[in-house]
Specification:
Layout: H1 14-25, E1 30-34, H2 56-63, E2 69-73, H3 78-85, E3 96-100, E4 105-108, E5 113-115, H4 121-135, E6 144-147, E7 152-155, H5 162-179, E8 183-186, E9 190-194, H6 200-211, E10 215-220, H7 226-237, E11 242-247, H8 252-255, E12 260-262, H9 265-281
Parallel strand pairs: 1-2, 1-10, 2-3, 10-11, 11-12
Antiparallel strand pairs: 3-4, 4-5, 6-7, 7-9, 8-9
């Protein structure tokens, strides 16, 4: 991180400043929850090549012992996020939990095991139908399917015109999802088909209740993080301080609601390390 420590930035909102102050005053009563792709890891053309920032594990290991828990909440399978994050077996990360598939799966660092539900029949049906479905949109060659276990996603980032492919496929894929009892979750050049009633907000609220945390920090970068933002806002309305962090400004819907804007995963990791140092000094 260099010879000069990363300074602890000031949130732009009063609610965010209160949330950060509460976290630093009683870190042992705080949950720090983080998205993975775009927040801890850079967005890359091939999601299978995504990896957490090289300093991420060390920053989380410095922070985790000082707070109630660190939770990574992701649409990826929990085991995949653990591998791509390099989280397994890292000293100091005993308080880390990875909630995969928006909370449908869970990996606890203390046990090193993943708990996952049975496959959703709607996802299984879509998985079988999707290749032929996309073949009917031959003009959008370059799109590809990502298998996510409890969900399936169509990426348009490699298409000759990614935004046009995204726009053309959004409505048809929404119809396909609905026919099989699923919902369509749009993201940054990705359209994910997954079961309803499972999102990052539900996962975050449930985990905060489980831990009994008084304060929550959530950091994300994409539309799928909006439910988690809403969960933090609801907790704040109930008297629980919270801080909303946005990684990057590519998604205005998220950036406009954030208390603190950071330019990307490297800055998020530096911020977490700074919070760990400040919590140690508090």
């Amino acid at each position: 991180m260099g010879s000069t420590p990363y300074p602890l930035p000031t949130p732009a909102t009063a609610a965010g400043a209160d949330g950060l102050a509460a976290l630093l005053a009683r870190p042992g009563k705080a949950v720090v929850a983080l998205d993975f792709d775009g927040t801890l890891a850079e967005i890359v053309p091939d999601p299978e090549q995504a990896r957490a920032h090289p300093r991420a594990a060390a920053a989380l290991a410095a922070l985790a012992p000082r707070v109630a828990s660190v939770a990574v909440i992701t649409g990826r399978p929990a085991g995949v996020a653990v591998r791509y994050g390099g989280f397994a077996g890292v000293p100091g990360l005993e308080h880390l939990v990875v909630l995969g598939h928006y909370g449908a799966e869970r990996w606890d660092a203390v046990t090193g095991t993943v708990h996952a539900p049975a496959a959703n029949p709607g996802v299984e049906a879509v998985r079988a139908e999707l290749p032929g479905f996309l073949d009917r949109f031959g003009a959008w060659r370059g799109t590809w399917i990502e298998e996510k276990g409890q969900a399936v996603a169509v990426h348009t980032r490699r298409a000759s015109d990614p935004e046009a492919a995204f726009d053309a496929l959004r409505e048809p894929l929404a119809g396909l999802a609905a026919r099989h009892g699923l919902i369509l979750e749009p993201g940054r050049m990705v359209l994910e088909l997954r079961p309803p009633g499972v999102d990052k907000g539900v996962a975050l609220a449930k985990y905060v209740r489980e831990t009994g945390a008084e304060t929550v920090l959530y950091a994300g970068d994409d539309l799928g993080d909006l439910p988690a933002y809403a969960a933090v806002e609801s907790l704040r309305a109930d008297g629980h301080p919270g801080l909303l962090v946005c990684s990057g400004t590519e998604v205005p819907e998220l950036a406009e609601r954030a208390d603190l804007l950071l330019p990307g995963p490297a800055a998020v990791v530096d911020f977490l390390a700074a919070v760990a140092r400040a919590a140690a000094d508090a």
